[in-house]
Amino acid sequence: MGTIGDGYDNALIESFWGKMQVELLNRQEWTTRTELANAVFDYIEIYHNRWRRHSAIGNHTPAEYEQQHPKLQIAS
């Protein structure tokens, strides 16, 4: 973390919200808050966390990365 007022502290989440805005929120209107909440949940839990390609792991999806590197999984 940086010091107070650093722009770098929020860069990751600002990037995420920007992508979600373009890929989900700007594409349709919802009639109820429940529909919107379900759409955001599906976007985060199903699309972003499982299928969206991430540059931090070599532009692979998390599912592909875990299949290629099974030994790197954290033992619980």
SSE topology:
Blueprint (H helix, E strand, L loop, with lengths): L10 H13 L9 H19 L10 H7 L8
Pfam families: rve_2
Protein name: IS3 family transposase
InterPro entries: Integrase_cat-core, RNaseH-like_sf, Transposase_IS3/IS150/IS904
In words, what does this structure look like?
By secondary structure, the protein is mainly alpha-helical. Helices cover 51% and strands 0% of the residues. It has a domain at 29-76. The longest helix is centred in the middle third of the chain and has 19 residues, at 33-51. The radius of gyration is 16 Å and the shape is flat. The chain starts with 10 loop residues before the first helix and ends in an 8-residue tail after the last helix.
- Rg result: 16 Å
Residues in β-strands, percent: under 5%
Largest sheet: none
**Helix coverage percent:** 40-55%
Give the count of helical stretches. Answer: 3
User: What is the average per-residue confidence, as pLDDT, rounded to a whole number?
Assistant: 80
What is the N-to-C succession of helices and strands? HHH
Shape: flat
Distance between the ends: 27 Å
E-strand count = 0
Q: Assign the structural class, choosing from mainly alpha, mainly beta, alpha/beta, alpha+beta, or little secondary structure.
A: mainly alpha
Residue ranges: pLDDT <50 for 5 or more in a row? none
